[in-house]
Amino acid sequence: MKHSPTAAMGRLIGGFTGMGRKYGAEWWILIIGALIIGGIILMALLAPLIAPYDPHDQAAGPQLAPPSSEHLLGTDNLQRDVLSRIIFGARTILGVAILAALISSVVGISLGMFSGYSGGTFDKTLSLIMDSVYSFPGLILAITFAAMLEPGIMSITIAVAVIYIPTYFRLVRGQTLTIKEELYVESARAIGAPNLVILGKYIFPNVIATTAVVFTMNVGDAIMIEAALTYLGLGLPPSIVDWGMDLAMGKKFLPSGQWWLITFPGVMISTLALGFTMLGEGLAEILNPRLLER
After folding, report:
1. Is residue 5 part of a domain?
2. Domains identified in the chain, total number
3. Against a cut of 0.70, is the pTM above it?
């Protein structure tokens, strides 16, 4: 029996409202964050189709033209269309932030599991190193690494990723120390299961769920760090379209009244970071076992 699209849509809406009644405001915070992120990701994917001009085109319009019907967000000092640069710039900041969070999560989770499971001198040494890195302010540490590396997307990605590795390490190590004492892990060890099998089959599935919230929060924070590094002239060459770069270039024109050069990149950076923060906050509340008992 075929189901009509209207019925399917009704069930979908009913499911959403049911989740809203179950979890309350946290569910709608998560949905709004997901919609913000999804919209900007879709914009980045469709950039060549929806951007009215090439983001590098220095003959797109008059110099420093304010927002108008021809240029919805105006033009910059090099006669480039601001809207087109906003659309294409989403690719850079999303790519750097998500890839940095992925790298830091893979490295941090792996080191945290191995350190917590093995214990001994290896665990103490690695914990001391991670605590030392964690003690530095994130932006200062990212500036240091970005200054040491050659300008480029991978360089700024690594600079941002390094500062989040201790976060995953500390979280996963603490959980591993608890999980490895559980009876099922002891039983697997008693029957001769290799350590890698124990880590992959019994410990990893129990620590990965809690890192999902940390991941979304880190992406939101990485967006701000990436924009700050680019604003300071670190990490990316001027040839790459980026919101932080446009923010830095537009600040000198603000006193003369060209407000749109920094307003729109700034709004996009804040909106994208807010989307990931809302997603993380919603997940944190929904995954909270005490909330599920209500």
Report:
1. no
2. 1
3. yes
